[in-house]
Structure formats: C-alpha cells, structure tokens
Write a structure and sequence with these properties.
- The chain is built from seven helices and ten strands.
- The protein has helices at 45-52, 75-85, 101-111, 116-129, 145-157, 175-190, 202-205; strands at residues 3-14, 17-29, 34-38, 60-65, 68-69, 86-89, 163-167, 194-198, 210-215, 218-219.
- Strands 6-7-8-3-9-10 form a six-stranded mixed β-sheet, sandwiched between helices. A four-stranded antiparallel β-sheet has the order 2-1-4-5.
- Keywords: ATP-binding, Nucleotide-binding, Translocase, Transport.
Length: 220
Amino acid sequence: MLLQLNNIFKWVNSGGQRVFLLKDINLTVEEGEFISVMGPSGSGKSTLLNVIGMLDNFDEGKYCFMDEPVHTLKEKHRANLYKQYIGFVFQSYHLLDDLTVQENLEMPLLYKKVRNSERKSLVADTLDRFNLVGKKDLFPTQLSGGQQQLVGVARALISSPKLILADEPTGNLNSKQGEEIMELFKQLNEDGVTIIQVTHSEKNATFGSRIINLLDGRKL
C-alpha cells in the first residue's frame, strides 16, 4: 500500500459556520495504480490532491504515506517526504520565470541533493526524452503553453517520484498535446509509477484504472 486516508475532514470557518472542503474521505491507493478524480468545480478535487501531496493540512482524520503517519509528522519531515517521493504537475505550470528550462528541471534534484555530475546527466536525459534540447536555455515566458506544460511534466518526473499528482494536466493544451501528455502518463504508469490525476475530461479519466467521483467534498 502506498497511501491511506482515513476519515479525512477539512473545513474553513465562514461567518461562524463550518464550510466543509472535504468530508469523511476514505481512500487507499496501492502502488502502481492510476486514479482519476472527477467532479464539478468546487467539489474538493484540488483540495484532495493538495492533502495527498502534503501541501495542505486537514482538520480531522489520519493519513499514512508509505507507512509514515503524515498527520503526526513535523513540517520538515513532511516536506522531505514529498520532495523525496512525490512529483506535482499543475495546470498553471508553476515554473520559475527567472530560471531557464534547464534550471527549472534541475530544481527538484537540488532539493534531493543529487550530485552535480549525476544531476547534469539526468537533466540531459530528460531534455532529450521530452524533445526540449533546443529549448534548454529559454525562459518559461519564451515558450508556448504546451511547451511550458511539457517542462512542468518533465520537472515532475526528473527525480523519479513514486507518486505523480496531476491537477488538470492537459487543461491548457490543445488536443494533440493533451493526448501526448496522457500517453506519457500511461507509459509511466506501466513502468510502475503511481498516478493520481484530477480531470474534467471523460476521455482523460479513462486512462486511469479507477475513477473517484467527488461532490461537495464527499466521495460518491
């Protein structure tokens, strides 16, 4: 088992009322699964992804990731855990504008304290794999949306994460680029990487081995 959520609640207080973002979520994810999370806007999809990715805290419940009790870990230990094992692909890319493509790709490896020589070779391999060699010295603002998304995916994968969390990974892409990204995810999943994606697209959802539907913070 890779991760398990037990009775997870997350809420915000608004005008003296509790507004639930996540309500009694139970979820077990095995290594090698490919899960699609679907639901209307505001149903809690991104919140769930952020909780799994340890970017968001929750108010009640238990979360175990690789046998580590996330809910009791100190901030630093938790940060190390997700930097070590989790890759994020965001719809809005989250690339650093003042770094080149090459430098953006290097960031996760610096976090993991990968040796210089190994870092250079991993970056070179990744640039090659994603056909980005010709773009390595450009800044994100000089790239098209599709190219930026590709760099975002490449950056998520460069440190060989156990788990990829993708929030609308094809949201800003044309259909051909979107298909390429989904095929890439499928390949990675076949190579053993666990993937959880949030998507509005029925077609993208079918790439997953199971679909989880959310409504008003609840799992249907």
